[in-house]
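Title: [Solved] ArsA family ATPase 3D structure

Original question kept below for reference.
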Amino acid sequence: MSDLTQLAASRDVLFVGGKGGVGKTAVASALALQQARLGRRTLVVSTDPAHNLGHLWQRRVGDAPVELAPLLRGMEIDPARTTDEHLRAVRATMERMMPEHLQGEVRRHLELAREAPGTHEAAVLERVAEVIEQRAPDELVIFDTAPSGHTSRLMALPELMQAWTEGLLRRQDRSARFGAALRGLDRQPDAGDQRAAEIVGSFAGSRRVGRRTDDRRARRDAEIRAVLDRRQGRFRALREVLQDREQAAFVIVLAAERLPVLETIELEQSLLRASMHVGALVVNKRSPAEAGPLLAARREVEEGYVDQLTRALPDLPLLQVPLLPGEVLGETGLDRLAEHLV
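Solution (posted by the thread starter after getting help):
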């Protein structure tokens, strides 16, 4: 059994990533199919905005899981729908909490935020967290990720989002305390005001109105706190899963070429900074040495890049997958690829 198969069998969550065009989706799908064939329920999820899962499996795959093979489901996270739902949820929460005269400003701000840097990644991260939260206890989830730069940002987000949410919680605490102090001051009318109010019979009523206003503000503060607590809990749980090397690992797929090798070394370092464990490397589409002089020469060039890779990352298990005759397409093609992952 290969290191890659052992890795998949022993983890709950795997991320498969690397430079664009190296065969990430095919390797993620073949690995998922292999695990399903071995009897484990598996879900393969594409987070890449340029989805290829449906094309590869030759069937429609959408934002909800569909059956691809016995014990194997697949889904493609829809970034536009995910961003819409994310912003809709944020708007609903903010509209409940903000005064009515500021709600138009909230809507305009969120419309601008739709295209802001990081909005798409934050929305995808929410779905990643949701998929992991909802996985069955024995199910393996394999994420087929976007090319390296996009994935690096995504993997760094749980840490950033938790820090950001903690900052909001601290500000919310300060704001709530400040508001309570102001309301305490507001409840201390001077003796003249009290006497005048008692004469016209309005003091008791004004105190009731004050209490109702205080209650609304207190409920709003509590709701803000609850929303931020839930968000912080979700990102903390996601970060704990991603950083637990017993639960999750990252598999980098690459071609034995200069740029994919350099990008793999950089990606491994960025994942290390995000405290994620890289469990294996897959060098895909290795040229055969005995299929004519052209491919033999090509193989010799590739050997140099494989050597460079193993020198840079000597402790990582490395699996080499040969260039297959014909196109890897559909369940039959993925079965042929899966044979080389065992």
